[in-house]
Amino acid sequence: MAQEVRGVIAPGKNEPVRVETIVVPDPGPGEAVVQIQACGVCHTDLHYKQGGINDDFPFLLGHEAAGVVESVGAGVTDVAPGDFVILNWRAVCGQCRACLRGRPWYCFNTHNAKQKMTLKDGTELSPALGIGAFAEKTLVAAGQCTKVDPAVSPAVAGLLGCGVMAGIGAAINTGNVGRGDTVAVIGCGGVGDAAIAGSRLAGAAKIIAVDIDDRKLITAEKLGATHTVNSRATDPVEAIRELTGGFGADVVIEAVGRPETYQQAFYARDLAGTVVLVGVPTPDMKLELPLIDVFGRGGALKSSWYGDCLPSRDFPMLIDLHLQGRLDLGAFVSETITLDDVEPAFERMHQGDVLRSVVIL
Ligand code: APR
Ligand code: ZN
Ligand code: ZN
């Protein structure tokens, strides 16, 4: 029996979001219905609403979520009703060229639910990132459900499903930050702060936070930044070099997604250092760098997709570290709101007033 639940949709380009009745089908083979307990508000949801991702309106927004599996379809063995899960948008296929080479975190053929959720009139919905979790219940591929310790608060757990994982993974997976490394993070929103927390977890000796907003630098310090630089007031490349014996950082993580901040990252790293781009640029942006510097400075220029995470490996581990008091995921939850408050939460996010607003269901 299909069920009717409340959910937040983006009806059309730049139209305000609204709560509608969503029809959620019973799970088919390989699918699961999850009762959502919490879902964070992410920039990507806003990009969907603005038409910046694609034109497949209406969207069912929300994708940083945790909840309890309600029912599963035929053939599902990894999760069962009652399991507490974080939803991921990297349900790996096991068959593609990346999976077959033992690099499933790059999987090029990830799964979503095959059936569609709809409005009451039958209009098919496009779930954000194949999830759609600003809703009391959602239908996903079973592989999108990652079991974690249910002792964690759902509001905190859900954030690992996207932005916070992207940031932590940019540091520990893509950047390979290790004990004793110097790290600089440019852009200290939710993603950059998570990169800072990840660098601390990995044992970085020095973590330099760069932002243009002093409020962000204060939060960055709470999450593990040892030094802060306001790049409106101070040249960040000079400042980072000064703080690293004149050389630059071993790993510089760009968490803004702009050519000028990428350029800063490029020149703020030490010879043979690593730049990690985790901020998402827009298609019109161009980068110009002297090729001799790309060659002459050596090292690695990497991009981080979803923190190069493997949900089954990374989510339970990070939740365990959080429960042990070694990773302060609670610091990312700026406020909790209801399904009816998503539109104003977008505004607060846009103004930089919050790291994450989290819808509690
Ligand atoms: N230099 C330094 N910091 C900057 C600059 C700049 N030129 N421009 C913006 N910032 C800072 C903002 O002040 C803010 O603190 O970058 C931060 C961006 O944070 P958020 O807007 O909260 O975004 P976040 O959720 O952290 O995502 C960052 O990663 O996943 C991507 O799409 C996401 O591109 C976005 C990026
Ligand atoms: Zn694959
Ligand atoms: Zn997201």
CATH top level class name of the largest domain: Alpha Beta
CATH architecture annotation of the largest domain: Alpha-Beta Complex
Helix content: 25-40%
Bound molecules: adenosine-5-diphosphoribose, zinc ion
- Give the end-to-end Cα distance, rounded to a whole number of Å: 22 Å
Give me the secondary-structure topology.
Layout lengths: L2 E8 L7 E7 L6 E10 L2 H7 L9 E2 L3 E9 L11 E4 L9 H4 L17 E2 L6 E2 L9 E5 L3 E3 L6 H6 L3 H12 L7 E5 L3 H12 L4 E6 L2 H10 L3 E4 L5 H8 L5 E6 L4 H9 L1 E9 L13 H6 L3 E4 L7 H13 L11 E3 L4 H9 L6 E4 L1
Parallel strand pairs: 4-8, 11-12, 11-14, 12-13, 14-15, 15-16, 17-18
Antiparallel strand pairs: 1-2, 1-4, 2-7, 3-5, 3-9, 3-18, 5-6, 6-10
This protein binds adenosine-5-diphosphoribose (APR) and zinc ion (2 copies).
Would you kindly provide a brief summary of this structure?
The protein is α/β, with parallel strands linked by helices and 361 residues long. Helix content is 27%, strand content 26%.
Descriptive notes:
It is globular and about 65 Å long. Strand 11, helix 5 (190-201) and strand 12 (206-211) form a beta-alpha-beta unit. Helix 4 crosses helix 5. It folds into two domains: 3-161 and 328-360, Medium-chain alcohol dehydrogenases, catalytic domain (Quinone Oxidoreductase, Chain A, domain 1, Alpha-Beta Complex), CATH 3.90.180; 168-304, Rossmann fold. Helices cover 27% and strands 26% of the residues. The chain is built from eleven helices and 18 strands. It has helices at 43-49, 97-100, 154-159, 163-174, 190-201, 214-223, 236-243, 259-267, 291-296, 311-323, 342-350; strands spanning 3-10, 18-24, 31-40, 59-60, 64-72, 84-87, 118-119, 126-127, 137-141, 145-147, 182-186, 206-211, 227-230, 249-254, 269-277, 300-303, 335-337, 357-360. With 361 residues, the protein is an alpha/beta fold.
